[in-house]
């Protein structure tokens, strides 16, 4: 038996509306929002008293999804350090292919994105960068140029 597909990546955020706005600006589409609570939620995530709101975002091609989760209960546990460097163990980043990296950076800065390093070119193939996005996650962008 093998997996069928990767369904989504989940990110816990402190401001769901701001995170939805950020990823909408990036070009993702809001698929839907829901409140999650109850025994099944507790059992699934291994916490007691789960009450959260989620927003499911999807890429324009419909193949990839990002679940944004805002926990109301139990209280959110802050990661240490708050904005870990790119070489921290665990989930590193989420990368998106874009058609215009400079325009995308400009639009995301209006939503609080901070460029980590600079836009770099890999041979004559890609322009790449990392941004700090909602809840401190690293969002990588890649523009194919060759």
SSE topology sketch:
Layout: E1 9-12, H1 16-26, E2 29-37, H2 39-45, E3 51-58, E4 65-73, E5 94-97, H3 101-109, E6 114-122, E7 126-132, E8 138-144
Parallel strand pairs: 1-4, 5-8
Antiparallel strand pairs: 2-3, 3-4, 6-7, 7-8
Characterization of the model:
With 146 residues, the chain is an alpha/beta fold. 18% of the residues lie in helices and 39% in strands. The protein contains 3 helices and 8 strands. The strands form 2 sheets. It has a 4-stranded mixed sheet, with helices on both faces. The protein has a 4-stranded mixed sheet with strand order 5-8-7-6, covered by helices on one side. The longest helix has 11 residues, at 16-26. The chain is globular, with a radius of gyration of 16 Å. The model has no long low-confidence stretch (mean pLDDT 91).
